[in-house]
């Protein structure tokens, strides 16, 4: 089938014949010829098995122009064809048409002597310039002037000897056969996507060859792309790790959390920087909900393999159904895998296994290594019955699967018992990446005696692995190091075989092998989840926890492994994965352990933490409250486990807006820790900091400042000024200074704090970004608006990139940025952003939460600026009422909402109502914040404005004069707040969500 032809009066026409395996060479050669004005057509070489080879070569001559054969190992083996057939066909066709034929060779081994009449030129191991020169010389075009690399075309196919700039794929299956229809359909779907990119899924039953087609496509069309990246998508944690691994390969600067890297990769692919052409393959993407958020957008291509139609149902993914082999493909594959088969025997074998590629691979592999007559083996498969093997197979499959696999296992057990035992152990690890090297390097005491002996004998070990590779459908993945030869790192096994192995083990065998797998995993635990150098190991271990039976293990080391994996996931920011692991583990441990077992209590704390991090606050509260009540009934008030549980519940209550309850819990913890451990103990410091956060959220800023000051002094002395905990205390201290209206001091401290953060932490670290946010807010309060806008915009983008658009930290900085835009920038953007933030807060914490109320109040200020007086007034009244109900009449947030309400009433013409609110609000502000706090002085200026509106000018002038003098004394005569009151601009208050 010709793929393309250039028209428009070419000087000469070439038909390029290639085996599908080396399409990249055909595409590159065609592009080179077309650049010099020649016409081309690409013709895939795959003649029917029953067509004589002489006839197939004669058919090539019906194509226009000269025929250029791209010869490789596949070109001669398709069919398969014997050397004798090729010799006869070439002698019959080429001499009489020597002016029509030319050839190049890209074979990895010497071509058979039968190729000599074609006079092929060798292109192996050359650069593009030399390959171009040799091709042109062979075609008699070497006198033409165009240089091969002149005026490079970014859309041109890459030179096949130059791999994509970024590349991660499974090894190519050298036995891949047929499937050209599916490959061409896939190529056409992607091409039809144009510059907007495309997503396509290969859907079919298990064992039909979806992954093999995807891998072959990625290899065959690799020179169309700058990035080719493979992701094993069966397990969410693995998929996220592998997708995130693109970040360093693309040279992206990111934080340490996995989410940071994932969003950076998605942004790089979306924008096409640094590479515009990319292909990402998600293999075994059967659970759409688990990986849908990973799929990148942009002008590249996404390829999925899946059992489900869910992807196509979204309307954003086109689908190609993958069916079993065509019979001709089955025959060709079986004969290539088991060369002793005749065409008729291969046909009978294909019929027995219903052309399913997985079964053909298994059965032909067995026939290639065993002497049994093919007809006898095929008869065994046909006679197989469900009673022979205790496994339930989907009705999509014939009994041939059961019988062929049973025969393979029996033969393996007879010839290589060691390999059989190793294979059974493999069934207790996740099938996508069975950690062979981990098993081989396990402590001898963690393995059964015979497997321990096997692992220490390199020759026997590799012999056993080779037997598995030859006799079963497992694929070895190798790793190379400078110190040693390539060694098997992992093994991949099809899930059907994996399930079959498990189902055929007795209960005793399952228990013994599960215990072995658990010991291997626990022995590989670095026991240091906070050490970033060990994170790769934890990422390797986590996919195997459920399969191995570790979640049910009674061994303390195995349970500690699970807790360490959860702590790793927490530190990595993989909250949803950690939550799923908790939900799988908690019911098992509750059924097996005493209610107050330390491991179970720790697991429960982590579970509550993950619920909270995933925004499931009510569930976290219920879990935390039940733990506190249960422990309080049986433990003393100062019991460490009870204090931990109270601390965890306090975090949930702060997230839910129940600040007073959180304060009481933390205050009790601080009192006990101070009495038992002293005021400088780490636990005392931690809970003192939590208590300060709760006080700050209650609007008790001075008390919060005092506690942060205590922690800051202790940490500066016991740790050092550049320690991350010292910096955190410094950040919190400067934050409270700003909320108290001490802007100059806050600015000075925060500038220094940010400088050190930038020196010792990367720019994507959440603590660094919060420090920069506070600096931007200080800049805004001191009048440095352009600098504040630039810094805050940068922080917003980094939080969005690293945490996602709905994370509480992202919403916090977006809320602040929206108010800055409203007051000093783009009103339309401010309206859009503030509305989105308010909506997302309602979805995250509920409409009665202070953050949802406050950010909705910020929307009202935008309406005020637009002149939508009625809606602005209704919004302000609602925010005032709801905030008072949420945090109390005297909370600074309620005072701020009241200030906005008085302004909205005044704007709407209700001057009397505005004055009533302003007068009461001023007295409450004095009591809560003091006479000279900026919010108190804003309330005083607002009352003066309301009195002026009522023509009570003398009283208004007195209040205005007091406010101006107090502002000048505290902030300075030229401070923006002072100048605004002097210009008689109506004061307003922005709600600012706080970190907690």
Describe this structure in a few short sentences:
The chain is 60% helix and 8% strand. Strand 13 and strand 14 (484-493) form a beta hairpin.
Account of the 3D structure:
It is a single chain. Mean pLDDT is 89; it is low at 4-9 and 385-397. The chain is 60% helix and 8% strand. Helix 31 (659-677) packs antiparallel against helix 32 (682-697) and helix 44 (934-949) runs antiparallel to helix 45. The two termini are 64 Å apart. The chain contains 46 helices and 14 strands. It is elongated, with a radius of gyration of 36 Å. A six-stranded mixed beta sheet has the order 1-3-2-4-5-6. With 996 residues, the chain is of the alpha/beta class.
What's the structural blueprint in terms of helices and strands?
Elements: E1 2-5, E2 13-18, H1 23-35, E3 39-44, H2 53-60, E4 66-71, H3 73-77, H4 83-93, E5 101-105, E6 121-122, H5 128-138, E7 166-168, H6 180-192, E8 198-203, H7 210-220, E9 227-232, H8 236-244, H9 246-249, H10 258-271, E10 278-283, H11 288-291, E11 301-306, H12 310-313, E12 318-321, H13 327-337, H14 343-352, H15 357-369, H16 374-383, H17 400-415, H18 417-426, H19 436-440, H20 449-456, H21 458-471, E13 474-481, E14 484-493, H22 495-503, H23 507-523, H24 535-541, H25 545-548, H26 556-572, H27 575-592, H28 598-613, H29 617-632, H30 640-656, H31 659-677, H32 682-697, H33 701-718, H34 724-739, H35 743-760, H36 766-781, H37 785-803, H38 808-824, H39 827-845, H40 850-866, H41 869-887, H42 892-907, H43 911-929, H44 934-949, H45 953-970, H46 976-982
Parallel strand pairs: 2-3, 2-4, 4-5, 5-6, 7-9, 8-11, 8-12, 9-10, 10-11
Antiparallel strand pairs: 1-3, 13-14
